[in-house]
Amino acid sequence: MSAKKHILYRNAKEGNSQNFRVNYYEGCSHGCKYCYGCAIKEKSGDADYATWIKPFLVENTLELLKEDLQHVRDKGEVFVESVSDAYMPDADQKVTRKVLELLALSGFTIFLLSKNASLIRDIDLFKRFSQRIKVGFTIVTPNDEIRKRVEPNSSPVEERIAVLKELHKAGLHTVVSLEPLLPNVTIEDYLQLVAEIDPYVSSYEPVGKLSTNIPTEFINNEEWRGIETGRFDAHYVELFKVLLPKLGNKYRIAEHSRAFLDRHDIPYLDKPIKFSSSCDYSTYF
């Protein structure tokens, strides 16, 4: 475990749909080679990739959260594990359930993304708080061979899509993050992915290109070598122009990608996502 004074933070930057974020793990065992969380920790000297993929639960997580909640008056949307994953292989099942319950009972709307299909184990909890939760997956490629290379310990894409369908069937607001869109995945593959999952997606949050915040040892990875020089800008321009219209009126552009779209005169939606849930939550109380 690691010690911290807080795990609930207010987002200061504009453009975030979530007013708050909760992070109770240091590190993530999914081992994503493009992980901006790892890159940020690396730049501050707090971790490198080898230590990042050996996560620690923050000491006294539940006590810290209860204390933090006492000082928050204006409840909003909270991103659970914005730099890690609440359902990674090393995650504590009981702690995650309790964190979600405390947040929902305190009046927050929960924004929950994972790369692990094991989140299906908490579908009873999601149904209970269906009017206060957006839940789903990050999917950055439909190609599982690429997934194995860049997200080595995450769930296969097919498993995530299967669980997404179950969440949708349960009447929950389902979310898919298309971030980062990878430069070595073809436009055709992304269009095929969206065509497959769109009937089961309430919103795409967020949608964005690969950033240059990549762990040092992977900055020259063959999947994206040259990303920091603008090598893939033309690809991204074409991708956004073709992909965004296919997402309808239910997507949110990642904050770091907005400047890119503005610079290339690519129009995009800039309005809140409508919450959608058809689950009969009254039966759970």
Structure in words:
- The chain is of the alpha/beta class.
- It has one domain: TIM Barrel.
- 32% of the residues lie in helices and 16% in strands.
- The protein is built from 10 helices and 10 strands.
- The protein has helices spanning 36-43, 49-52, 61-69, 93-105, 123-128, 144-150, 157-169, 187-197, 233-243, 255-263; strands at residues 8-10, 20-22, 25-26, 56-57, 77-80, 109-114, 133-138, 173-181, 203-209, 251-253.
- The strands form 2 sheets. An 8-stranded mixed sheet has the order 1-2-5-6-7-8-9-10.
- Strand 9, helix 9 and strand 10 form a beta-alpha-beta unit.
- Helix 3 (61-69) runs parallel beside helix 4.
- It is globular, with a radius of gyration of 18 Å.
- The model is unreliable at 281-285 (pLDDT under 50).
